[in-house]
Design a protein that fits this description.
D-amino Acid Aminotransferase, Chain A, domain 1, six-stranded mixed β-sheet, five-stranded antiparallel β-sheet, OB fold (Dihydrolipoamide Acetyltransferase, E2P), binds zinc ion, Helix Hairpins
Length: 699
C-alpha cells in the first residue's frame, strides 16, 4: 500500500473513532487499538510532514507554539438574543410572533448552555476555522484551540460549505476535577473561556471541552432545510454533536410529534399550553444536568417565517432567550436622591457607580421607600447588588458590603426637596402635600404630554422643565395658550423645534375623550381605568361631573371593576376646584370631552384569532367581560369550539368545550394566562415616564 493511502486510511478510521466516542457517546474501538493507530499515523506524519493535513486527528493534541487570535469577519449574522425573564413573557412573545407572521407556527425549545459561543466554518466538508462571537460582526480566530475539541468534526460526512453556531462548554464533573489546578476559574464557564484563549493549544487540549451546535447556515442556500428541526437533523448527520434535550410546541401535541418524527429527531412534543409547566420543570431539574444552562431558547421552527421576520439591529425577531435569573450587577451607592412624583409621592433613588446590567448601563436604582431602605440597612458608600426584572426599573436588592466611611442607614429628610413642604406619611410612602409643588406640577404636565397619554412627544420632561422655569407653562392648560416663540431666545431651541411643539399641541386636540380622561391625572384613572369608565357608560365629562356632584358612588361601583375606595377617590378628585377649573380651561381650548361612537384605542393584537369561552371565572364575572376584552383587541368570539377556533379561554368547570378543544388541538388558555396576555398587551401602552399613577383596578 502507498504510504499516502495508509495515511488516508488511518485518518479516516481515527476520525470515525473520535466521532463515535465524543459525539455519539458510543465507542467503536478499544483505547489500545486507538492508541496503536494514532501512534502509527503520528510516526508517518513526522517522517513525512508533506502528508500531514490540518484536519488530521493528530492535530487535536495542539501545539506548543504560542499563537495570537487575529480578528476575522463573520460571514453570517451572529447576534445575541432578546431576553425574557418569565414564562408569561415567552408565551406573549409567541403570540405576538404568530400574529406578525399571521399564521400558526411551531416553536423549538432548546437549552441555553452556559458556555462560550462559537462559529465553526467548513469549506467543502473540511474544518477551516473557528471564530468567537466577538462583537457579532468580527470575531477572534481561535481555530488552533477549537481543533483540539474532539467533538468538533474536522471532516464532515458530506462536502458541504457551511457555518455552524454552537456553544463550547466544560461538563460539570470535569470542572470539579480540574478546579484545584485552576484556582483562577470561578466556574466551568470561566475555565472554558480561559481554555479557548490559551496561548498554547497543547494546554487547551488538556481541558476536555466539548460542544453542542444549534444553527447551520449553508453557503448554497438551495441546500438549506425548510425548518429548524431539519437543520438540527442535518447537522447531526454531518457529524456534529447536537443537544438531544429539545421540545417542540405547536397548536397540538400530535402536530409537534409529527414535526419531530418527520425530522427524525428525538424530543418532547407539546401543545402551546404546555409551555409554562415545561419551563417550570426544566428550571427545577437543571441542577441534575451534566452541564450548566442559564436559560432556555425559543425559536420559530419555520425558516421562511424566520426570513420574513428578520432582525432588529441587535436581535433576530424569531427567537427569544428565557433566562432563569434576573440580570444582576454589583456596584457602589454614591448617593441617594429624592424624587417627587406627579402625585407628590416621594421616591428615594440610589445614585450608582455606572454598571452594565441586562444590556444597558445602569446609574440609578429605585429604593422604593424608607421602609425598604431600613430593611436593606442601606447607607451611602455601600456596595450593593442591583437587579432588573423584565422591563422594570432596576432596584437595589441587597447590601453586599458596608461602607468604610462610617455612614449609617440613609434617612429621607422630612421636607420636600422641591418646595420645602413638610412631608406626610400615607401608607408605606411619604408624600409632598402641596399640589402646587413645582416637581408635582412638572410631573403632571410631563405625564399629560407623554407618548402614551396625549402623545405630544416633542414636549418631553426636559422641555416641560424649561417651560415651567421660564414661567411659560405653570399648568397643563397653559400648553394651549403658550407662546412657544419665547423659546427661540434660549440655547438649543430653534424654529423647527418650536414648530413641532405647536403642531403637537394642535394634534392633541384630536385625541379621543378616553385619552383626555386618562391624561388628567385623576387618581386610579390611567389608560385602563379611563377605558373602564367610558365603556361603563361615562361617555362624556358631564356625566362624570354630575355623578361626582351628586356623590353618586354607585354610579361607579356598578361598573363592576371599580371598588368603593376607587370610586370615592375619583369623586373627591372631580370635586376639587383646581380640577374643575382645569377641565373647563381644557374644554375651552378645544379638547375632546365627549366620546364618539366605537372608540377603540387598543392595538388589534388579537386580530385573526377566534376565541371561545367556557367555565366560570374569578375576575371576569360575568364572563362577557372577558369577551369584551377579546373583542376590543380584534379577536372574534364564538359560542362553540370548531376547527376554526384558535383559542379556548377556560375557567373552572366547562367540560365539553375543553374536551372538544383538546381533540382539535385548540390552544387552551387559563384565566391567569389570559390576564398576563392582557397585561403584556397593555404593557406597551403603559410606559409612562414615572412608574406611579398606573391603575390599581383589581386585575
Ligand atoms: Zn413639594
Amino acid at each position: 500500500m502507498e504510504l499516502k493511502e495508509r495515511v488516508d486510511q488511518l485518518t479516516d478510521e481515527l476520525l470515525k473513532a473520535q466521532k463515535a466516542y465524543y459525539v455519539d457517546g458510543r465507542p467503536v474501538m478499544s483505547d489500545t487499538e486507538y492508541d496503536r493507530l494514532f501512534d502509527e499515523l503520528s510516526r508517518i506524519e513526522s517522517q513525512h510532514p508533506e502528508y500531514r493535513s490540518a484536519t488530521s486527528p493528530t492535530q487535536r493534541v495542539g501545539s506548543d507554539l504560542s499563537g495570537d487570535f487575529p480578528e476575522v469577519a463573520h460571514t453570517i449574522p451572529v447576534l445575541s438574543l432578546d431576553k425574557a425573564y418569565s414564562s408569561e413573557e415567552v408565551i406573549s412573545w409567541m403570540d405576538k410572533t404568530m400574529k406578525s407572521a399571521s399564521s400558526s407556527l411551531s416553536f423549538v425549545e432548546e437549552e441555553k448552555i452556559d458556555g462560550i459561543s462559537m462559529v465553526l466554518y467548513y469549506q467543502d466538508g473540511e474544518f477551516v476555522r473557528a471564530l468567537t462571537r466577538g462583537n457579532g460582526y468580527v470575531g477572534n480566530d481561535v481555530s488552533a484551540n477549537i481543533r483540539t475539541i474532539k467533538a468538533v468534526p474536522l471532516r464532515l460526512s458530506e462536502p458541504v460549505s457551511i457555518a455552524v453556531r454552537g456553544e463550547v462548554y466544560l461538563p460539570k464533573k470535569d470542572f470539579e476535577r480540574l478546579k484545584e489546578a485552576n484556582p483562577e476559574a470561578a466556574n466551568a464557564r470561566n475555565l472554558a473561556a480561559g481554555t479557548v484563549r490559551r496561548q498554547k493549544s497543547s494546554e487547551a487540549a488538556a481541558v476536555p471541552l466539548t460542544i453542542f451546535v444549534y444553527e447551520g447556515f449553508w453557503e448554497d442556500e438551495s441546500q438549506r432545510p425548510e425548518d429548524h428541526l431539519s437543520i438540527l437533523a442535518r447537522l447531526k448527520n454531518l457529524g456534529f454533536r447536537i443537544n438531544p434535550h429539545i421540545a417542540v410546541f405547536s397548536s397540538s401535541q400530535e402536530k409537534s410529534r409529527e414535526l419531530l418524527s418527520k425530522a427524525g429527531l428525538e424530543g418532547k412534543a407539546y401543545a402551546f399550553d404546555g409551555l409554562g409547566s415545561y419551563l417550570e420543570e426544566v428550571t427545577a431539574e437543571r441542577k441534575d444536568l451534566e452541564y450548566e444552562i442559564d436559560g432556555m431558547v425559543t425559536k420559530v421552527n419555520e425558516l421562511d417565517v424566520r426570513q420574513a421576520l428578520g432582525y432588529t439591529e441587535h436581535h433576530p425577531r424569531w427567537a427569544i432567550a428565557y433566562k432563569f435569573e434576573s440580570p444582576q450587577a454589583t456596584t457602589k451607592v454614591l448617593g441617594v436622591t429624592i424624587q417627587v412624583g406627579r402625585t407628590g409621592r416621594i421616591t428615594p433613588v440610589a445614585e450608582l457607580e455606572s454598571v452594565p446590567l441586562g444590556g444597558s448601563v445602569v446609574r440609578r436604582a429605585t429604593l422604593h421607600n424608607q421602609e425598604y431602605i431600613n430593611e436593606l440597612e442601606l447607607a451611602v458608600g455601600d456596595t450593593v447588588s442591583v437587579v432588573k426584572r423584565g422591563d422594570v426599573i432596576p432596584a437595589v436588592e441587597e447590601v453586599l458590603e458596608k461602607n468604610e466611611e462610617g455612614n449609617t442607614t440613609f434617612i429621607i429628610p422630612p421636607f420636600c426637596p422641591s418646595c420645602g413642604a413638610r412631608l406626610v406619611q400615607r401608607g408605606a410612602h411619604l408624600f409632598c402635600p402641596d399640589r402646587n409643588c413645582p416637581q408635582q406640577v412638572k410631573g403632571r404636565i410631563s405625564y399629560f404630554t407623554s407618548r402614551d397619554q396625549m402623545d405630544m412627544d416633542s414636549i418631553g420632561p426636559k422641555v416641560v422643565e424649561k417651560l415651567y422655569d421660564m414661567g411659560l407653562v405653570r399648568d397643563i392648560s397653559d400648553l394651549y395658550t403658550c407662546d412657544f416663540s419665547r423659546l427661540l431666545d434660549e440655547k438649543g431651541y430653534g424654529e423647527k423645534m418650536v414648530r413641532s411643539f405647536r403642531e403637537a399641541v394642535e394634534e392633541s386636540k384630536k385625541r379621543p375623550f378616553v385619552t383626555v380622561l386618562a391624561s388628567l391625572g385623576l387618581p386610579e384613572v390611567g389608560t385602563k381605568g379611563a377605558e373602564i369608565l367610558v365603556k361603563g357608560g361615562f361617555t362624556d365629562i358631564d356625566r362624570l361631573l354630575k355623578a361626582s356632584d351628586e356623590n353618586d358612588i354607585e354610579a361607579f361601583t356598578r361598573i363592576g371593576q371599580i371598588g368603593l375606595q376607587t370610586a370615592t377617590l375619583i369623586i373627591a378628585a372631580l370635586q376639587d376646584e383646581d380640577m374643575r377649573s382645569l377641565i373647563s380651561r381644557l374644554r375651552e381650548a378645544g379638547l375632546q370631552f365627549e366620546s364618539h361612537e366605537e372608540e377603540n384605542s387598543l392595538e388589534q393584537t388579537f386580530s385573526g384569532q377566534v376565541w371561545a369561552v367556557t367555565g366560570s371565572f374569578e375576575h371576569f364575572n360575568p364572563r362577557t367581560l372577558a369577551l369584551k376584552e377579546l373583542e376590543k383587541r380584534g379577536a372574534r368570539t364564538v359560542s362553540s369550539v370548531t376547527g376554526k377556533t384558535t383559542h379556548l379561554l377556560a375557567g373552572k368547570g366547562g367540560g365539553s368545550k375543553r374536551a372538544q378543544a383538546e381533540s382539535l388541538g385548540v390552544r387552551i388558555v387559563s384565566e391567569d394566562e389570559f390576564i398576563s396576555m392582557l397585561r403584556q398587551d397593555d404593557g406597551k401602552n403603559d410606559k409612562v415616564s414615572q412608574p406611579e399613577g398606573q391603575l390599581s383596578f383589581d386585575f
